[in-house]
């Protein structure tokens, strides 16, 4: 059987596969804001990692107890507006964007007018892992996924960069891919500490 070339999809040797995570002042897109935004390229490592000063929120005690991002830590940072073009450009050119439990993250991105490219695949690793891990409709935590795949301690949980590293580690394990060199280096560094 013969196919016309225009119908055959070409895949680059190293497609642009980005992983991301956000930390917010809370979970309500109406009132809450992004505090940290991290993006990691599967092949290159960290391409964006910034703390972000909220435009309106001045306090977030409930979530501060989880991610430990204080108002003092972000008071001299830029607001999301300054980073929008950079983030949009990264996502616009990505073949695939992956996160863990990203529904709320995507709502916050939409609120701040940050979209992925129209041909970009958006993939929630949590949904795939839930099929392996659980027979019910409960969505397993990133911590459960990391434990299942024996992810070493890569740093403080609920830091969006560390959570992104963990997501990459679990993705690589789930799909039997080679561990990227930059992630191997992080794992080795953490083991020696």
From TrEMBL:
Would the keyword Mitochondrion turn up in this protein's UniProt record? no
- Pfam families, alphabetized: RNase_T (PF00929)
Domain Exonuclease: where?
16-180
InterPro entries to which the protein is assigned, alphabetical? Ribonucl_H (IPR013520), RNaseH-like_sf (IPR012337), RNaseH_sf (IPR036397)
- Superkingdom, according to UniProt? Bacteria
Q: Which UniProt keywords apply?
A: Exonuclease, Hydrolase, Nuclease
Q: Which SUPFAM superfamilies match?
A: Ribonuclease H-like (SSF53098)
In the record, what terms sit under GO molecular function? 3'-5' exonuclease activity; nucleic acid binding
PANTHER family, alphabetized: DNA POLYMERASE III SUBUNIT EPSILON, PROTEIN NEN2
- Listed name of the protein: 3'-5' exonuclease
């Amino acid at each position: 059987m013969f196919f016309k070339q225009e119908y055959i999809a070409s895949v680059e040797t190293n497609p642009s596969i980005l992983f991301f995570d956000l930390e917010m002042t809370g979970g309500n897109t109406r009132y809450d804001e992004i505090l940290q935004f991290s993006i990691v390229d599967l092949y290159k490592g960290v391409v964006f990692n910034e703390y972000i000063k909220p435009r309106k929120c001045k306090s977030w005690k409930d979530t501060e107890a989880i991610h430990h991002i204080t108002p003092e830590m972000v008071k001299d940072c830029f607001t999301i507006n300054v980073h929008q073009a950079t983030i949009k450009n990264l996502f616009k050119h990505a073949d695939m964007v992956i996160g863990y439990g990203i529904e709320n993250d995507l709502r916050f991105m939409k609120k701040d007018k940050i979209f992925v490219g129209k041909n970009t695949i958006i993939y929630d690793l949590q949904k795939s892992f839930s099929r392996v891990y659980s027979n019910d409709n409960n969505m397993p935590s990133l911590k459960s996924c990391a434990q299942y795949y024996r992810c070493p301690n890569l740093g403080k949980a609920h830091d969006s960069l560390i959570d992104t590293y963990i997501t990459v580690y679990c993705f690589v394990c789930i799909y039997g891919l080679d561990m990227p060199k930059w992630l191997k280096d992080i794992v080795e560094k953490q083991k020696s500490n």
